[in-house]
Amino acid sequence: RAAMPGGQVLLLLMGLAGAAGQGQEWDLVGRDALVIAVSNGGPWGDWAWPDMCPKGSYASSVSFKVEPPQGMMEDDTALNGIRLHCSHSRDPSGGYTAESQSSRWGRWSEACWCPHRGHLVGFALRVQAPQHRLLSDEVTATSARFICSNGHVLEGPGSTWGQWGGWSPQCPRAVCGIQTWQDPAWGLKRDDTALNDPRLFCC
Questions:
Q1: Pair 200, 168: CB distance under 8 Å
Q2: pTM for the whole thing?
Q3: What DSSP character marks residue 19?
Q4: How many CB atoms lie within 10 A of CB 111?
Q5: Which UniProt keywords are listed (predicted)?
Q6: What CATH number is given to the structural domain containing 146?
Q7: Cα(120)–Cα(70) distance, integer angstroms
Q8: Is residue 140 part of a domain?
Q9: What are 63-114's pLDDT values in tens digits?
Q10: Distance of alpha carbon 145 from alpha carbon 30, whole angstroms
Q11: Would you say residue 77 lies in a domain?
Q12: Containing domain of residue 79, as a range?
């Protein structure tokens, strides 16, 4: 896993398009993207493809895919996906989304919007640390918070397991894309952890 040291900010010069999962292409051609991240994400999985808001738009709302607690003998995955809702200054109601990869469990929440035409600028992640115990149910990311440009905080409907980490750095202007560190579905004989970590693109 390629970690980002220090303040968890990285300038990516996106001069070329890269191949991404499921036959998609990264919509990053000709765009310089500042990446913000947190340091407490889970360890399992791989980076999926990035997904970006249309050029000239930004993320002003977010929704969460969450699986509720499954009980003592079942496999929990908690936070499975994060979807950004993109808006343009001429169309603040949105209509476009950016999602990257999400796991199959759970349901999507209603969109949580920044008030007063604000936009997303940073996030924090709630994570259950690896248990490393026999027969333990590993979960990793359980909830997320996003901070808006006007200081309003949006919190997802995830579980209360784990601990909140620190806030990411804030985008100078606005969030415009997302990429997820996703653990694939392993099936009945393996412990699934779904979403382990996201990172966001600033434009």
A1: yes
A2: 0.79
A3: B
A4: 16
A5: Signal
A6: 2.100.10.20
A7: 31
A8: yes
A9: 999 988 776 666 667 899 999 999 986 665 667 999 998 877 888 999 999 9
A10: 30
A11: yes
A12: 34-184+192-202
Within 8 A by CB and 6+ apart from 126, the residues are 141, 142, 143, 144, 145, 158, 161, 162, 163, 164, 165
Q: What are phi and psi of 133, to 5 degrees?
A: -120, 150
Q: What share of the chain is helix, strand, coil (3-state, %, to 5)?
A: 0, 45, 55
Cα–Cα nearest to 157, from 78, 39, 72: 78
Residue 25, pLDDT > 90, answer no
In a domain, 157, yes or no: yes
Q: Give the number of domains in the chain.
A: 1
In angstroms, the CA 92 to CA 111 distance is 14
Token couple for 133: 């115990």
Q: How far apart are CA 179 and CA 71, in angstroms?
A: 30
Residue 5 lies in a domain: no
User: What is the Cα–Cα distance from 200 to 202, expressed in whole angstroms?
Assistant: 7
